[in-house]
């Protein structure tokens, strides 16, 4: 009988374990992606944790985590982003991926992470591990000529266009400030300059006075002059002035691009920005992000509504959460302490859905995530009103 082991891998052992499986799982083949290029990408992940599952001496599954900081209901928490989770085809359907995820969850919890985020290969698999789905970002398409009315207005402020290498610091600083305002937004803690620079993008900085009010990452692509597509992968603003300065910048490409495509957070409502936009709106990506609470005890500090309730949390994957907890709002902030009794029970999926604001407390029983009386449901809804989280990072 073969011996299955799980361990953290580094250096050459990490490269050997991850390269072939990742190249096969996440790239079209044959041939496999260039090994030197892939290994360079892996080695740039300063601070990442890589874990592999071995069957005897052969790596059969692997995955990684990177440290992040995520905003949840007005407070910042250490988080872990899981990526590159894959299993060799010959070893699939044998429980190796689940074993790998258990090891990753334990490792990042020991490292202090309060929550985990990822992009799943199958949502139902990760839901069984405690994850819930976030709303999808949206992609809008329009003609820059629809924005022409903005060119006839004297907008206060200006837009500066820079290569991402030059504008990176301003872009990153804006994103960190934006995270303070956007529920669910998470950024990798380490410098993400290599990932951003690979896109060869322009950064547009919309400023009013000396203050940056909006940022846009974009590129111009196409083979026919005057019929390029302006593709904006990031479009953030802190004020209406920032938004319309960025839209005005797109309008200035009327004679260069006949199409504009903008990725927006799910909470945006671009239909009302201007009349006659004739937008096409679709989901931005084919995979939705998923999230999970890793450490119930360390959720204290987020902004919650009035309420005080004792709940038993069911979490067999992360047994340190499996207990009765008192969730109470004190001076507008959540306080979490252990309790001896409980007024109801919910699964870790149910708690995660409430914390992130993607599920009404009345829905939990229908989802199989809780058993609560009406009073408890009302209390939880008061404490955790619905919100629209947005992750930001793609990986």
Can you give me a brief rundown of this structure?
This protein has 395 residues and is α+β, with helices and mostly antiparallel strands.
How far apart the termini lie comes to 37 Å
Largest sheet: 8 strands, mixed
Q: Give the number of DSSP strands.
A: 20
Question: What are the segments in which pLDDT stays under 50 over at least 5 consecutive residues?
Answer: none
* Cα shape: globular
CATH architecture of the largest domain: 3-Layer(aba) Sandwich
| CATH level-4 homologous superfamily of the largest domain | Gcn5-related N-acetyltransferase (GNAT)
How would you spell out the order of helices and strands? EHHEEEHEHEEEHEHEEEHEEEEEEEHHEH
Helix content: 25-40%
Whole-number count of domains: 3
């Amino acid at each position: 009988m073969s011996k299955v082991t799980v361990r953290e891998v580094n250096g050459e052992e990490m490269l050997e374990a991850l390269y072939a499986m990742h190249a096969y799982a996440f790239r079209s083949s044959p041939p496999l992606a260039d090994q030197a290029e892939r290994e360079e990408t892996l080695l740039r992940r300063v601070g990442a944790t890589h874990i592999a599952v071995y069957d005897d001496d052969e790596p059969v599954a692997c995955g990684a985590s990177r440290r992040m900081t995520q905003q949840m209901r007005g407070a910042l928490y250490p988080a872990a982003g899981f990526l590159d989770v894959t299993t060799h085809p010959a070893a699939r359907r044998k429980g190796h991926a689940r074993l790998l995820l258990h090891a990753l969850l334990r490792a990042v919890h020991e490292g202090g992470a309060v929550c985990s985020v990822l992009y799943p290969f199958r949502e139902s698999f990760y839901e069984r591990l405690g994850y819930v789905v976030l709303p999808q970002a949206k992609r809008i398409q329009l003609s820059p000529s629809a924005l022409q009315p903005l060119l006839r207005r004297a907008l206060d402020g200006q837009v500066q266009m820079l290569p991402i290498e030059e504008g990176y610091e301003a872009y990153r600083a804006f994103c960190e400030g934006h995270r303070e305002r956007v529920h669910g937004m998470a950024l990798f803690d380490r410098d993400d300059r290599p990932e951003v620079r690979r896109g060869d993008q322009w950064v547009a900085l919309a400023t009013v006075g000396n203050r940056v009010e909006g940022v846009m990452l974009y590129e111009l692509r196409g083979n026919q002059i005057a019929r390029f597509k302006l593709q904006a992968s990031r479009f953030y603003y802190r004020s209406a002035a920032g938004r319309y300065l960025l839209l005005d910048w797109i309008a200035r490409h009327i004679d260069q691009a006949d199409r504009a495509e903008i990725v927006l957070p799910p909470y945006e409502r671009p239909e009302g920005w201007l009349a006659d936009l004739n937008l096409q709106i679709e989901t931005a990506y084919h995979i939705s992000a998923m999230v999970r609470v890793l450490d119930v005890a360390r959720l204290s500090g987020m902004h919650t509504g009035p309420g005080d309730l004792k709940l038993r949390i069911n979490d067999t994957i992360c047994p340190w959460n499996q207990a009765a907890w008192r969730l109470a709002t004190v001076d507008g902030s959540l306080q979490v302490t252990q309790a001896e009794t409980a007024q109801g029970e919910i699964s870790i999926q149910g708690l995660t859905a409430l914390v992130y604001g993607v599920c009404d407390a009345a829905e939990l029983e229908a989802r199989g995530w809780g058993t609560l009386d009406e009073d408890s449901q009302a209390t939880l809804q008061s404490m955790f009103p619905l919100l629209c989280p947005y992750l930001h990072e793609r990986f």
